[in-house]
Structure formats: C-alpha cells, structure tokens
Amino acid sequence: MFHVDSASQEETLHAILEKRQGGPRDLLQVLIEIQHAFHHVPPKVLSILAERLQVPLVRVKGVVSFYSFLSVEPQGEVVIHFSDNITDQMLGNRKLASLLCARLGVRLGETRKDGRVSVHLTSCTGMCDQGPAALVNYVPVTRLDAPRIEGMANLIEAGVPPEDWPKEFFAVETPMRRSDVMFRTPMAPGAGLRASLERGGERLPAWAEDLAPSDARRHHLERGGAETLKEIYRSELRGRGGAGFKTAIKWESVRSGEMGSRYVLCNADEGEPGTFKDRVLLTGYADTVFEGMTICGHVVGSKLGILYIRQEYWYLKQHLEGVLSRRREAGLLGDGILGTDLDFDIEIHWGAGAYICGMETAMIKSIEGRRGIPRRRWPLPVHMGYMKKPTVVNNVETFAAAALISARGGGWFAYNGTAQSSGTKLFCVSGDCVRPGVYEYPWGVSLRELLRDCGGLDAQAAQVGGPSGIMVSRDEFDRSICFEDLASTGTLMVFGPRRDLFNVVKNFVGFFQHESCGLCTPCRVGTTLLANYVKKFDQGCGSPVDLGEIEHIAKVMRTMAHCGLGQTANLHITDSLRKFPDIWNSRMRTTRFIPAFDLDGALEEARELTGRTDDAAHLSLEEA
Amino acid sequence: MAEKLKIATCSLAGCFGCHMSFLDIDERLIDLLELVEFDRSPINDIKHLGPAVDLGLIEGGVCNADNVHVLRQFRDRCRVLVAVGECGITGGVPSMRNSFTLKQCLEESYIRGAGVECAHIPDDPELPLLLNKVRPLHHIVKIDYFLPGCPPSADAFWHFLTELVAGRDPSLPPALIHFD
Hints:
heterodimer; A: 624 residues; alpha/beta; Glutaredoxin; Rossmann fold; 5 domains; 6-stranded mixed sheet; 5-stranded mixed sheet; B: 180 residues; 5-stranded parallel sheet; 7 helices
C-alpha cells in the first residue's frame, strides 16, 4: 500500500504539482492525476495540496468526497467500473460483474486485500451502443461477455497492467449510422474560421463610438465577428444540450457584456445516461468542435476556451491534445490566428464522475476546482460565469454546428428542421434495436421514423432525452422530436416488447438518488424517498396510498428543487404511472396500506433476547 | 347543530409533551368541547377506543408490539388519523436508539448499567416486545395529516383542530411552524 514517505512517490507528487501554476482552480485536475498515479488520494497528500494550492483543507476534502472517481480509500492497481445504465443492465452487466467478482474473489464495491483490483458500478459511461461496458483504469472496455471477463480476470491475476492488454478489448466504435447535411461532408479544418475572419465586422455601433481606444469592447467590435454572429442569428441555432436556448442571443450577451476577460466553455460532460454523441463528435469531428469554440472566441472577444470533458472519455485525451497541437501548428489556435490579431487557445479540463457537472453553473464550479454544486442562475453565466467573467457555455454539438454555420451560412442551416427547431440534430440510439448508434436527422423527425431506421419499431416504449426526459408509449410514436413537441438532448433508449419497464424505473430512480448533489432538500430527500417507494413496490408492499405519496413527492420536487436535476428526476416516475400503470398495479398485493418492512421480523431480535415464543411475541401482517 | 365530532388521542413512544401542549389551549378547551367530544384519551382517562371515531391524534413513534396494536386499532376506527409532533412524524428522540442494536440497548440498561442488580433482560409475557427500530407512525399505517412541532404549540393545535372541524384544509400558517 502507498505511503507518501517513499522518495519516488514524493517525486511523482512533485512532478504533478510542478506542471501546474498552483492556483486553487487546479485542485480538481491535480487530484485526478494523483488518483491515477496512486490509485487513491492519500490523506497526507490532502494537506500538502491545501498548502500548495492555497485552499482550505476542508475544501480539498470536500472535493475528494464529491466526485465518484476520487477516493481516499486505496483502490486496486486495476480499478474496474462497470457501467450500470439500463442499457447495460438489459445486456446483463450485473451478471458479468458478479462473474468477474467471483473469479477474482472480490466483493462488488470493494478492493481486494492484496490491493490488486477493485470492482465498482458506475453511472452510464457513454458506451450504450456497444455495451455492456466497463472502465478499466478509466479506459473503456466494450462489448463485455463471459469470455472477455474471463480474459480480463486472467490478465489481472497474471499482473499484466491494462496498458498491455489486447487492443481489441479497448476498441470503441463510433458509428454514425445516418448523416445529414451537417456531417455528410466533412469540413476542412479552418474553413469555418477563415469564413468568420473574412466576413469582417460592421461599423462601430453608436453606443461604442465613445469607448476609449484601449477598451476591449472596441477592440473586438472593430475586429469583426459581427457578421458571423448575424449568420448564427440567421441559422436560428438553439443549444444542443437540452435547454434549447438561442445560441446567437447567448453569444451576443457575452459580446456586448462587461469589458475584460471572457471565456468560452464547451460542455462535454455528457452524463445523461444513453447519450454518446459528444463522444462520437470528439472522436471524428474534434476539429469542427474546436473550430466552433474558436469562432465563438472571435465573436465574443475571448482569448481562452475550455473543454470540460467527463473522465469516462479519458481514452480520448491523447487524440484531443493531438488535434489541439495540430491546430496550433496550422495557425488555427494560439496567438495571431491565421495571421490576424485574433488570439485564442483551448485547454482541456477533466471531470471526475459527477452527472450534476453537466449543469452549466455546476460545471463552472468544477472547472474552478470546486465541488460541482449548481448555483442560482442569476446572474447568468453570460454575465458572470467562469472566474466571475462573462462566459459562453455551449454543448459540443452546438459548437460543431456553429463552425459549420460559419463555413456554410446560416441560411443553409435553417433550411432544415421545423419552425421553432432549425437544422439537424444528432440522436444517440441504444437499447433494444438492431442498429444502435448516432443518427443525424432534421429536427421534427417522427419517433416512428427513427425507430424504423434503427430497427426498433416493435418497442413497447422509448425514453426520449435520457432519464430526465420523457418516457413515451407506443401510441405516441408519431410524435415528432423537436422543441415544439418532444424536446430532447438527442437520446433515445428503446425498450422491446418483453422488457419489464419497472426495471427501467428502478434503474433511473437509483441513478438520480446517487447523482443528486445534496444541496437542496426537495432533491436530496425526494430522490431517496422515491427510491424507497420504488423498492417498496418491488417487494410487493406497495398500495394505492403509496401512489398518492409518490405523486405528492414528485410534485414537490418538480416545483421546489434548486436545479433541473431535481425538477426532472421524478418525470420517469410520473410518466410511467400515467402511461404504464400496469407495471405499478401488478406489483400491488393489497389495496390497504402495509409497511415496507417485515413487522414480525422486526420483533425477531427481541424474541431472541428474551427467549419468548408466545402469541404476543408475534405480529401478524393483517389484524383488525 | 349536528352531532359533535368524536376525538381520540393517545401517546405511544412519546413523552406526553404534545398532550401537555394541547392542554395549553387553556380556556379554549371549553370552546372546543362545544364542537367535539372526547373518546379514548389520557385527558379523560378513558382507556378503550370507541368503535367509530372521527379524529385520532397520536403522539409518539412506534417502539414496541403494543404500540403497533394500538396504532392499528386507531387506524381502523378513526376516520382521520393525525401524527402529532416530532416523534410521531420522524421517530424523534426515542429513535436515537436506532443507531444501536436492540441487544446493545437492553444490555446497557439491564446487564451492564450502573447499579443493576439481578442483571437480566426482562422477559415477562406481560411486557410488549420491542421492535428492532423505532418507527414513525406512517411506516406502519396510513396517516392523513402531520402536525409538526416538538411539541406543536397550543396555537398550532387550536388552529389545526378548528380548521379541520370546520371542514377546511388545516394547513398551518408559517408563523405556527416557524421554530427559530
């Protein structure tokens, strides 16, 4: 086991800290590297970090305890996280996890005594189209089956480090099953950026004429970007992260905001179970995404962009850093981009296993090196975001779309889609269908068409937009996916005719219980109460009385929770109650309220202590 | 005026503090008696619950088998059942033993406790057996209303009862559930 006393480990720690400037905002990034190097964050390191990064010790501890992928308990040399999304469960991940645990002689959620290996479950790892999946030392292994588990167990027992495992274990496919106008023809790196720079600006607006020559606002207004902003307006692009806010309005708010630094943040946290489009985009279209960020930097007058990416995609690190350095060499990033006076660069920040960090204000805190807890949205990040400066936060797909709009024009983009939802959208399809993967369709596509194309038309239900989205039944398959009807982050999980949808509810309710950040009571308590009720029904102890309570709790969460997580964490429950009442009713043995626990069993300990066996020493289930 | 409503009250694993607070409505008790009559209650010392009661107020959580029987009887015979006070709603102070096993609790009291003679865990059949955990009322039966407070103030009792008897929603105004 690890001790900081040893010189080599001291050196490793030193090397990790050396690379950083040593400010509080490095905390999370440093902790991730420490976790990777030492398989945990040793208690001694906590105080060293507090001192070196000038943050209170309690905050260091708070950050470590917040993120799933950080731990003060020593983890094995090989850490395995089985993805536990419903799509993984439907493919038998729990059985495979038990198999591995049995084979290695370790309990799920624990580290083996010799420190060789730990096995855990984790929320969706974004490999739903090729599950069941797991992370091995934070690198995905896909398409798990019994032989592969056997192979992994052998390699672990033989002490082979995961870096030397067969390459096919780590094969990740990025199937773009259907591409439309956005991704049918790839954009040459630089095309969007050149178009943006060539498009030029406008005469200074009247309000800006009085600005001092050194004023940053004057500087970037003169430099242009205004025409590109017009193109974004023309495209009517709406944010692809789910909320669907008009991108151009967001960009303009930052552009015309307070002078000084501004930031461009790209949200690649992609924690919504069943979503993996950002993975596909960052694998195949990273240039387009980075270009979109750079164009945004040009439009809003920012010098720094940050890609915040979930650690489940750690395997993309080299690739992404490679793309960034290639772009720097090609003059598409860095100082004096393409020979102009535009300066912009992009950093990568890693998450550490927290769904809530996909929420923009939580993500900003996480990038600042804190616990990812959302704050109230006034002031908005466009006015006061990262480092309290005006900040654009957009989804990966939004930036990719922006780059393509700059290259091809707003009219080209707006041609597709519906009145309120312009353009095309990526959809991640997984679950019971023949062809899972990413599909590009114009907004407004009917669910039926999507299901037909992916080979999942016999489904009894589908989850649109992930667990926080909408559960739809067969008679809703003609609804169209767009902001006017079924709004979506682009996630579609398909449930075949023989699935028990109650398992879906169980999975989702457990997911939200785990991922609630704990800040507000409606969400922290509500998610646990809902999980308890689902368990009660699962055990056959549910009654109509409980259904009333569930509706009540769901309503409190929907109306009182602090952020979108709690407000939407109950939707799968209310949707399933309304659309699939049978999965609930079939689990009710009684119409009368009964306890969720075994009342007579609750007397067992007392019976043992007193040796009593008389009638009064027992409680029946029913009595009048 | 129509027939008076019947009210029953009892204390399970509680301290009778809620009942004391109820009595603090003082002379309003006389006004209340214009509207209701009391069935089983420690206030009038009636020990047995009538067959049909309109309103049951229960103080305290559920810590033993007898509590379960009494609670079930109240549920069966009361049209409306109210959990009164912290212990009834959450288990309260008695539930602090939930972080220990029953064995630890009983041994601390009857085997190892200071001044214990003839150490042995009471096993007389007259005594109700303890549950392994103290439970709030709504874990055992359906509860219709929760009257919070430790104890709920006399004004809270008064407001709650008069509103309910008048057939209105007995929600408490913020002033009556604001404790600090």
